[in-house]
Amino acid sequence: xxxxxxxxxxxxxxxxxxxxxxxxxxxxxxxxxxxxxxxxxxxxxxxxxxxxxxxxxxxxxxxxxxxxxxxxxxxxxxxxxxxxxxxxxxxxxxxxxxxxxxxxxxxxxxxxxxxxxxxxxxxxxxxxxxxxxxxxxxxxxxxxxxxxxxxxxxxxxxxxxxxxxxxxxxxxxxxxxxxxxxxxxxxxxxxxxxxxxxxxxxxxxxxxxxxxxxxxxxxxxxxxxxxxxxxxxxxxxxxxxxxxxxxxxxxxxxxxxxxxxxxxxxxxxxxxxxxxxxxxxxxxxxxxxxxxxxxxxxxxxxxxxxxxxxx
Length: 311
Hints:
By secondary structure, the protein is mainly alpha-helical.
């Protein structure tokens, strides 16, 4: 029975996961489960803090709350199946399940790209046009920016699953721990050049466009900060966007390395490492980065911890 017959018989794919480290699977499972729980708790804490304290009633924290929620769902799309690959051999995912996983992975990932761009625009207006900030960044505008991020995620997700799953597959084994785009392209029958061009084209929109918005926003911010006369004002202005800048570098660095390259440069081992970084490490670090660099968040966490102790 050939690969295509196998795929038809199984009605799905087999996820290899981290097959090369099978001896350490119990350890990796334990570490990943702990990281997942910690990430969910820390991001949910940020959502709880922002929702419960009036001091966080500003666009910056509204975007941060949405980012924290995205991170929770983003990880939840990937981690449960990854944990299964560490316990069950073989780990099978149906065609529909694979398509749904790819869609929601892209939906939350692309939404995060545009949400990070929205946060950069917010910081640009706050620093470069402070007198008009409350008028420009009103509640209605913030809601439209967040909604627009989700719409972009939906469109990109639908385009990718249509491009990928409208073709016939000549294999059933995915050399990855989830239904990622490049490993699935490896399984398509015939010439996949057009698919590669479409994937890169969509990635240009989903990654490069928001990244350019971020670069333009920070160019304006830097220009404004350089023109400030007071060192204290410069430090205060930079400190309000330093956390966001670190998160952007972490997220876009790995995303660009993964998607803005041709199939000929695809390396399963490297792709696994990069995917592990932006699906697990980045969502874990984001709340830590924002907590360390933000006095209000640190103060609210201390207050919450004090109440917990007295209770």
